[in-house]
Design a protein that fits this description.
Blueprint (H helix, E strand, L loop, with lengths): L4 H26 L3 H21 L3 H22 L4 H22 L7 H6 L7 H20 L1 H9 L1 H6 L4 H23 L4 H13 L5 H26 L3 H18 L10
Length: 268
């Protein structure tokens, strides 16, 4: 079967996102921050709307709003007056509603909301691949540089502080990295599905991982395989590519419980 250029571009772009999202998603799972990913992903629609409103690339709008959501969450968590899940739920629904409202008011611009909600990986251009791999290399470089510090604050934040690790700075860096991944992935998988590539591969890899490093690598590989199989399934059965990718990765998650684990997982 010969594959068209647009399909090859889609596979290359999807693999790039999976390689970035998998390792970062491990810390989302370890720190039980799944709702954080949803909140920042839902806010990205507001970023898209602001991008069109200001006449800039929606990618920058998504990143800016995701960073703003991360900062607001960090601020409210430090106040310790409202439960984290309540904060996340409020920010998530408020940003999503505001994004839809802004889009509806921009009558002079025609925006295909469904492509941003569910992704449109088949429309990826060479420039998008450049952004994904260029931005992805920066994200991974910063991530690897802060790997040990992130592990330390995940295991015991108070002990990490006592050892001189700048906990606040490392935590903010990680939130910015998540915002960057969401901005890069929004065109690939969409607002409503982007969190799946962060959480599900990491969760599936956890059962077969003996160390944090194994889990990070396993999550990246599962994400890559899911992207390729999902795209091939969308081509074969003529179904939307974004949901197809998610269904494949979720299948890996459920199958991990049907087979015996190979290790006594100590990955978190």
């Amino acid at each position: 079967m010969l594959l068209d250029d647009f399909f090859i571009r889609s596979i290359i772009a999807g693999i790039g996102i999976a390689l970035i999202a998998g390792p970062l998603g491990c810390f989302v799972v370890w720190r039980r921050m799944s709702y954080l990913g949803d909140t920042m992903a839902h806010s990205s629609l507001l970023g898209v709307a602001l991008g069109f409103l200001l006449g800039i690339d929606p990618l920058f709008g998504v990143f800016a709003v995701a960073v703003l959501m991360a900062l607001l969450l960090f601020f409210f968590q430090k106040q310790k007056q409202i439960a984290s899940d309540a904060i996340l739920g409020t920010l998530s629904h408020a940003s999503l509603a505001l994004g839809i409202l802004v889009v509806s008011l921009m009558t002079w611009v025609r925006i295909d909301i469904s492509s941003f909600l569910f992704g449109d990986i088949l429309s990826v251009e060479i420039s998008d691949i450049g952004w994904i791999y260029g931005g992805g290399l920066i994200v991974l470089a910063v991530f690897l540089k802060n790997w040990k510090s992130l592990l330390a604050i995940t295991v015991d934040e108070d002990l990490a502080k006592a050892e001189g690790i700048p906990v606040v700075r490392v935590h903010l860096i990680y939130l910015f990295l998540i915002a960057a991944v969401i901005a890069l992935a929004i065109k690939i998988i969409g607002v409503l599905l982007v969190t799946s590539l962060l959480i599900v591969p990491a969760t599936a890899a956890r059962r077969y991982s003996n160390t944090p490093e194994q889990m990070a690598i396993g999550a990246a590989l599962l994400g890559v395989v899911s992207v390729v199989l999902g795209l091939l399934a969308s081509l074969e059965f003529d179904v939307p590519s974004g949901p197809a990718i998610v269904i494949v990765v979720v299948s890996f998650f459920f199958s991990s419980f049907l087979l015996p684990a190979s290790f006594n997982s100590r990955a978190g």
